[in-house]
Design brief:
globular; 9 helices; 64% helix
């Protein structure tokens, strides 16, 4: 799928999960906590595509996520693409094809999702609030680049970076300190897994079973049959799926916060009566 669809699906899944925890387990979160988790999950849903690099010197090409912070993110994407290709080359078996790029390899696996989730949690636990601010800055940039792709394309990476910095500053000003924030790592991992499922419904699939060897192949692409696969950038993705993700997100937000607002409104009305 395209970047905007990935980011929107990550946001929708996190909001739906937050609503489910609230409704079924009584686990309430503040609006800020929900917003931060949604932002991080939306950014995490773009993270696997950092293995699709462009041309660093020209600030061109690459996946949506690779252009978030201009040359810096393009360079990061190029490094990750080369690392992914190296892992593919080092672990491929006799029936795995030869490749000259690392797209849809290591970063499109469950071990990668677990690794970045664990790394994010470890960073937030070790360094607390200020590590959280840095994580939010990075993930907010990815999320903005994905959710508002056309605006971000027109505005340019400098405006996207400044917008992510404002979100991080707001987080720093309002987030309580002295906490580990382990849910951030979970949000990143969930975003990555949502990305994998999104790519599995397209034609090429992803190596989600890696590193389990199957018939002398380590990197077998798993997905739905091509005849029913979603065309990347087609109407099914850009209209149907994005509409579904948007509706899920809106209903989840309403389910979590509208009852509290209505309850408070009724209390105020009763208190105002003579």
């Amino acid at each position: 799928m395209m970047g905007p669809s990935h980011a929107l699906s990550g946001a929708a899944v996190w909001l739906a999960g937050s609503w489910a925890l609230d409704f079924f387990a009584g686990y309430e979160q503040s609006p800020l906590a929900v917003a931060i988790g949604t932002t991080v999950c939306a950014g995490g849903a773009l993270l696997p595509d950092l293995d699709l690099s462009g041309k660093v010197t020209r600030n061109q090409g690459g996946a949506t996520v690779a252009r978030t912070f201009g040359v810096l993110s393009l360079f990061l994407a190029e490094v990750i693409e080369k690392i992914s290709l190296g892992i593919y080359t080092a672990t491929k078996l006799s029936r795995d094809p030869r490749r000259n790029n690392g797209h849809r390899t290591f970063t499109h696996t469950l071990p990668f999702a677990a690794l970045v989730g664990w790394g994010t949690t470890s960073l937030a636990t070790a360094y607390g609030k200020w590590a959280v601010v840095g994580i939010v800055f990075f993930m907010a940039g990815l999320g903005l680049r994905g959710l508002f792709d056309e605006w971000a394309e027109r505005a340019g990476w400098v405006i996207v970076t400044l917008s992510a910095a404002v979100i991080a500053w707001f987080t720093a000003a309002n987030l309580p300190g002295e906490r580990g924030y382990p849910m951030l790592g979970f949000a990143v991992a969930v975003g990555c897994v949502v990305h994998l499922f999104g790519d599995m419904i397209t034609k090429n699939g992803v190596p989600i079973l890696w590193p389990i060897p199957i018939n002398r192949r380590m990197w077998r692409m798993i997905g739905i049959p091509n005849r029913i696969a979603v065309q990347v950038g087609g109407k099914t993705e850009t209209v149907v799926l994005r509409t579904i993700f948007t509706v899920i997100a809106i209903l989840a937000v309403a389910g979590m916060f509208a009852p509290h607002v209505l309850h408070q409104f009724n209390l105020d009305k009763i208190a105002a009566e003579p």
